Amino acid sequence: MPTAIAPPQAEGLDGTSGEAGVNICTAVAWPLSKELGVTVTAKPFSWNDGGLPALDLCTLLLDRRAVTVGVTALPKQPDSVDRLAAGSGTLELLPELGPDARISPSRVVFPVDDRAVQVLSTGGIDRYPTGIDRVKAVAISRAVRDVVPRLLRTARQTDSACQLSTPEAEKFIGTLVQLRRDYRVNGALTCIWGSFDATVSIVESFHADTIPEAVRTPPPRFAPIGKPGYYLPDQGELVFRQGRRVVRVSGLTNPSREVPLDTLLGVVGPLLPLFIK
């Protein structure tokens, strides 16, 4: 069954491409450089992971060590912090950031006003030489906490192309969508529709030469779309190549339920002429 973890993103959606403009990371990079005495830079773009809860993301670099900051795109729910912390290892209380803050070997999670925040160190926390130490993780989290309230994004960001698939997305979600995150990266389209308990996304990439799922053992089930196309029911995902583009269609629910292939085909169907060009 698919779980409340974000599906794979299109190649490049890691802060090297995405949406331009001021984001959490660009706002805290210079103050953190002065506070920590190390070079802290922000990758210039932000993106969205389409998980549950869906996060607006950006990336900081501390001497080339990546730290990803995520803020829930919708107001937090009672279990939002727990969802962000799930599967990250042993959790400890982090009183420096409040009674609900937690720290694990890879991330810090905490609430800010009506949002939940995740500060994720790709190389770990207090893990050398790849990660950052606890002091830096706490300092980054404090800086993020201070700027989140003034940099929250509106829940609805739409692209007219994605609108074609909205009726099918809402049929999957079961209600009018509360979250939209539509944008283009180098012409490639991302469409995300979401609620507190379900998310469906279409993510296109121009530069993916391979489909990693194709080399799994046992091989994934073929889908009647693309050259080639695969359906991964355990992940709620349909992935296919159409010309020089790779397209991923993903559905997540909480609690988890199987996403039928026909549902994913129905969501992407109205947009297929875009990917055939």
Short description:
This protein is α+β, with helices and mostly antiparallel strands and 277 residues long.
Overview of the structural elements:
The chain is an alpha+beta fold and 277 residues long. 21% of the residues lie in helices and 30% in strands. The chain contains seven helices and 17 strands. Strands 9, 10, 11, 12, 13, 14, 15, 16 and 17 form a nine-stranded mixed beta sheet that branches. Strand 7 (107-112) and strand 8 (115-121) form a beta hairpin. Helix 1 (24-36) crosses helix 3. It is globular. The mean pLDDT is 89.
Q: Let me know the average pLDDT.
A: 89
Main sheet makeup:
9 strands, mixed
What is the subunit arrangement here?
single chain
Q: Gyration radius, to the nearest Å?
A: 19 Å
Helix content: 10-25%
User: What's the overall geometry?
Assistant: globular
> How much β-strand is present in the residues?
25-35%
H/E topology pattern = HEEEEHEEEEHEHHEEEEEEEEHH
Structural class by helix and strand composition = alpha+beta
Number of strands: 17
Tally of helical runs: 7
**What distance separates the N and C termini?**
34 Å
Show unreliable segments: none
Task: Give me some keywords for this one.
alpha+beta, 7 helices, 17 strands
Topology (SSEs and partners):
Layout: H1 24-36, E1 40-42, E2 47-48, E3 55-62, E4 65-72, H2 80-85, E5 92-93, E6 102-103, E7 107-112, E8 115-121, H3 134-147, E9 156-157, H4 160-163, H5 166-173, E10 179-181, E11 183-185, E12 188-194, E13 198-205, E14 221-222, E15 229-232, E16 237-242, E17 245-253, H6 261-268, H7 272-276
Parallel strand pairs: 9-10
Antiparallel strand pairs: 1-3, 2-3, 3-4, 4-8, 5-6, 6-7, 7-8, 10-12, 11-12, 12-13, 13-17, 14-15, 15-16, 16-17
